[in-house]
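Everyone, study these two lines:
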Amino acid sequence: MKTAEDSQSENIKIDIWFIGTLIITFFRVMLGAWMIVNGINHLLPMWGFANVYPQPLGTLHLSNVMLVSMIETGMFDYVKVAELVVGLCLVFNRFVPLALVIAMPLSLVVFYNSIALNLRFERIFSFYMAVWCTYMNVVLLLAYIKSYMPMLKFKTPVGKLCDLRLLKNIFKSEDASAKD
């Protein structure tokens, strides 16, 4: 006869796949939310609103030069729009593999600026968000590796004009594609 303790231990099973899915989902939403906040914060003044927080311009000279140059040339506007679009894709779980590829250079520049240009190497293993955006991006890229495998062929033939008909499939989910 089973005791109450035995039946409780049977019910408490740790499903590693479920925990991994939770972590990946948390990383996806967290990275997306962080990018949305940063993108909107920069774009608010263009729409006549005040920033939520002032744009940091770097603690040290090289960081300041990089950020001010990007702002003065207008490149920063494109970066922030890209952050906003990527963030929306990640939060709403749409075009995630593409969004992660677009996010990687953004994440690396944030990482480089925060760590190398500001000489804050002690933050590499901290929970500083500018560092974690890169770590989460790498983990998410690995989690979606299946989506990148077709691109990672050593030698690939050039497509044909008729391949454009495949564009109709971009809004189909993987589940719907499996049924066809």
In short: The mean pLDDT is 88. The radius of gyration is 21 Å.
